[in-house]
Amino acid sequence: MKNLFILFFFSLVTFAQTTNQCVLDQKSGKPMLVGICSREAIQDSSFAWWFNPEYENYELDKETLSHVKMDNEFHSITIVMGTWCSDSRREVPRFYKILDSLNFPSAKVKLIMVDRKKEAAEVNIASLNIELVPTMIIYNDGLEIGRIVETPKETLEKDLAAILTKK
């Protein structure tokens, strides 16, 4: 029994992932988040200076959003971004505002931060095939149905609507 407990303990330690891990960006000398993060990490910390104004000032396309239907049971989203990236700092707060307007549950959004090499510390993101950030990946019942990469083709609202209505 003691050996089983020790094995269990080391398994937890080995597979536990640090959240909201902040490191120093060697290029800029500024803090940078890596790995799995919470929305609060970018909203209420040293990153709020760009998140909050972008979120507050973004004007939603309410007409397009009135036609967007997200299934809170089956849809989920993974956002891969870099706090060092200007596109991420612009698009991710706007995307969160859209999700909030749709009452999409925050528990269904996974936020992964990458460094300039597109690596996410302890999180292996190779299977996500991330080339540019931000990348917002939309899933239906665990299967990818579309993604918005770097900047929207039209608008975030229209791109999301197109992904959700794609046959």
Features:
167 residues; alpha+beta; Glutaredoxin; six-stranded mixed beta sheet
Question: How would you describe what is shown here?
Answer:
With 167 residues, this protein is α+β, with helices and mostly antiparallel strands. The protein has one domain (18-165): 3-Layer(aba) Sandwich (Glutaredoxin), CATH 3.40.30.10. 35% of the residues lie in helices and 22% in strands. The protein contains 6 helices and 6 strands, in the order αββαααβαβββα. Strands 1-2-4-3-5-6 form a 6-stranded mixed beta sheet. α5 (86-101) links the parallel β3 and β4 (109-113). α3 (48-57) packs across α5.
Helices and strands in order:
Layout lengths: L1 H14 L5 E4 L6 E7 L1 H5 L4 H10 L4 H4 L9 E7 L4 H16 L7 E5 L21 E6 L2 E7 L6 H10 L2
Parallel strand pairs: 3-4
Antiparallel strand pairs: 1-2, 2-4, 3-5, 5-6
What's the arrangement of strands in the largest beta sheet?
1-2-4-3-5-6
Outline:
globular
Tell me the number of helical segments per DSSP (H or I, 4 or more residues long): 6
Helix % is 25-40%
Describe the biggest sheet? 6 strands, mixed
Helix and strand pattern: HEEHHHEHEEEH
- CATH top level label: Alpha Beta
Short description:
With 167 residues, this protein is an alpha+beta fold.
